[in-house]
From TrEMBL:
It holds the Pfam family ABC_tran. Keywords: ATP-binding, Membrane, Nucleotide-binding, Transmembrane, Transmembrane helix. It is found in: Cell membrane. It is a multi-pass membrane protein. This is ATP-binding cassette domain-containing protein. Residues 340-575 form the ABC transporter domain. InterPro entries: AAA+_ATPase (IPR003593), ABC1_TM_dom (IPR011527), ABC1_TM_sf (IPR036640), ABC_transporter-like_ATP-bd (IPR003439), ABC_transporter-like_CS (IPR017871), P-loop_NTPase (IPR027417), Type_1_exporter (IPR039421).
Length: 577
């Protein structure tokens, strides 16, 4: 428990002096507020009931003092409102950056399980609520503590029995708060989960909007969204019900307190004159100072609950250790030859799932062009994902140039490997920015050279703004072939010694395929290349073809040798032609 508490408060550290100033201002504001009813009492009791010949002068004097106090109070309050919020916003921004950076380090297996929309909810909504707690929390506690203690002390001196009678109501309020606390906490947590689900649904639906439209499934998506939206509404209704019950029970007790003061106060004026009228007025004025903190307890406890659950959700992610990390003595790879070796490698995505690869051994020589074929789901993509450590093997070892990939610095390892996939992902931005993704340090000239190698330069020059053309979200403004050529240009720029081509041309028409094939051939030159292919016609020329089935690599050899063998490959080939 200590560690999270320490972590919670650690975000104040960079802003400590500003934070203390804000707290001091909050103290001044509350203190000044407490003084006002005393000044009113002084005028009504001591000045107006005393020597009236000097009264006017004293009233002016007290009036002047009030003006000065008003100025002090509002300047302090301005500082609290402005700089207090700023502290909260800065802390929120620090935490958001930390969370995003941490998420970048989490392995793909984490993203396989999590919904993007839910994660977005954690980065935005949860932290927003947390920032409210960070700045309003201490400010409010300071403000209400000063008012409560101050009001109690002053009232005690005015009339002790009446003050104690009022005080007797407070345990009931405390018990009520405890009772509702758990209920509210649960309801708030549920709200967060449900808004996360709504976000996830929106993310899913909007990112697949083309498919939604092509299947004319708008009404299906609306139905799915409405279902999540209704679930969110239900959980909010539940929260409001709990809050309304909480608030109104409080309100009833508070009204009972006021009635007690009016009745017992008036009675003591009539019966034993221990109280006079100005005392009763002062009492009623201060009662609100004592009641207000209790009234706000509801709001403050909600704020606390929301902030704490926001922090717990933040820590849930922050506590996830990136399972794929650099080892303590990770090696930065020098220039490599590109040899790849799998030794007795086994892998499954999750413990309860079947193994995808079992005891697989394989050696690919530097510069070799190897094709990986086999039935769908055999594990071709999985095998390639293990080389850059997108996932770690459960058993066995993988080597690059004789060095175990687990001992290689991750960034240095991934720099050695270029991927060209069928499903190209481009970022919103310009053509230039997207190609530069391959090498952030590349000059414009190098980017243009890479585009030329990828047969992309001509179509880029025909775009309205050439290399500065915006390509839209995920590159929607480009054709499939154009996107593919940009992704190849990116890899040319990266210039890795190992290349993995996963179904890179299977979604293209003949014309685009021809262009892209020629640039891929150029790209593969001098690099160790693994090409995953379904269409066997595209890999006939491969130096070696590996046939992967659920039993592992069952055949390997050249196209002609495998046909002559009349086994799995020959069978697959016969089916396609
Ligand atoms: N992220 C994942 N989480 C869980 N299981 C997965 C994941 N990715 C793939 N699988 C499963 O692992 C097995 C191998 O998948 P993989 O994508 O490697 O096969 P493949 O041979 O490349 O198939 P295809 O030729 O259809 O692309 C499949 O049964 C698949 O369902």
């Amino acid at each position: 428990m200590r560690a999270p508490v320490h972590k919670f408060f650690s975000y104040y550290k960079p802003y400590l002096s500003l934070f203390i100033t804000v707290l001091a201002c909050s103290f001044i504001t509350s203190f000044v507020t407490l003084v006002f009813p005393l000044l009113v009492r002084y005028i009504t009791k001591d000045v107006l009931e005393g020597d009236l010949s000097t009264a006017l002068g004293e009233v002016y004097w007290v009036g002047g003092l009030m003006l000065v106090l008003v100025a002090i109070q509002n300047i302090s309050n301005y500082f609290v409102d402005y700089r207090g919020h700023e502290i909260g916003a800065r802390m929120e921004s620090d935490m958001r950056s930390e969370l995003f950076a941490h998420m970048q380090k989490l392995p793909l297996s984490f993203y396989d399980k999590e919904k993007t929309g839910r994660l977005m909810s954690r980065i935005t909504n949860d932290l927003l609520l947390l920032s409210e707690l960070y700045h309003h929390g201490p400010e409010d506690y300071m403000k209400y503590l000063v008012r409560f203690v101050g009001a109690f002390t002053i009232l005690f001196f005015i009339n002790a029995p009446l003050t104690i009678a009022v005080f007797c109501f407070l345990p009931f309020l405390g018990l009520l708060a405890l009772y509702f606390n758990k209920m509210l906490n649960k309801a708030i947590n549920k709200n967060k989960e449900r808004i996360g689900d709504v976000n996830a649904q929106v993310e899913d639906s909007l990112s697949g909007i083309r498919d939604v439209k092509s299947f004319a499934n708008e009404s299906v998506e609306i139905g799915k969204f409405n279902k999540e939206n209704a679930r969110f509404l239900e959980s909010r209704k539940h929260t409001y019900k709990a809050e309304a019950l909480f608030y109104n029970s409080f309100e009833t007790i508070i009204q009972l307190i006021t009635i007690t003061v009016v009745i017992f106060g008036s009675a003591s004026i009539v019966v034993n004159t221990t109280l006079d009228l100005s005392d009763l007025i002062t009492f009623l004025l201060y009662i609100s100072f004592m009641i207000e903190p209790i009234q706000r307890l509801n709001h403050m406890s909600t704020q606390l609950q929301e902030g704490v659950t926001g922090f717990q959700r933040f820590m849930e992610i922050m506590n996830l250790k990136p399972s794929i990390e650099n080892s303590s003595n990770a090696i930065i790879l020098p220039e490599i030859q590109g040899e790849i070796e799998f030794r007795q490698v086994s892998f499954c995505y999750e413990e309860h799932l079947d193994s995808v690869l079992q005891n697989l051994s394989l050696r690919i020589k530097p510069g070799e062009y190897v094709a990986l074929v086999g039935p769908s789901g055999a594990g071709k993509t999985t095998l390639c994902s293990l080389i850059p450590r997108f996932y770690d093997a459960i058993d066995g070892e993988i080597f690059i140039d004789g060095i175990n990939v687990r001992n290689i610095d991750l960034e240095s390892l991934r720099k050695q490997i270029g991927f060209v996939l069928q499903d190209v992902f481009l970022f919103a931005g310009t053509v230039m920015e997207n190609i530069r993704y391959g090498d952030q340090a590349a000059s414009d000239e190098e980017i243009i050279a890479a585009a030329k190698h990828a047969n992309a330069h001509d179509f880029i020059m025909n775009l309205p703004n050439g290399y500065d053309s915006e390509i839209g979200q995920r590159g929607v403004k480009l054709s499939g072939g154009q996107k593919q050529r940009l992704s190849i240009a990116r890899v040319f720029l990266k210039n890795p010694p190992i290349l993995i081509l996963d179904e890179a041309t299977s979604a293209l028409d003949n014309e685009s395929e021809k262009i892209i094939k020629s640039s891929l051939e150029l790209l593969a030159k001098g690099r160790t290349t693994i090409i995953i292919a379904h269409r066997l016609s595209t890999i006939r020329h491969a130096g070696r073809i590996l046939v992967l089935t659920e039993d592992g690599i069952v055949e390997q050899g050249t196209h002609d040798a495998l046909l002559a063998r009349d086994g799995v490959y020959a069978n697959l080939y016969a089916k396609q032609f």
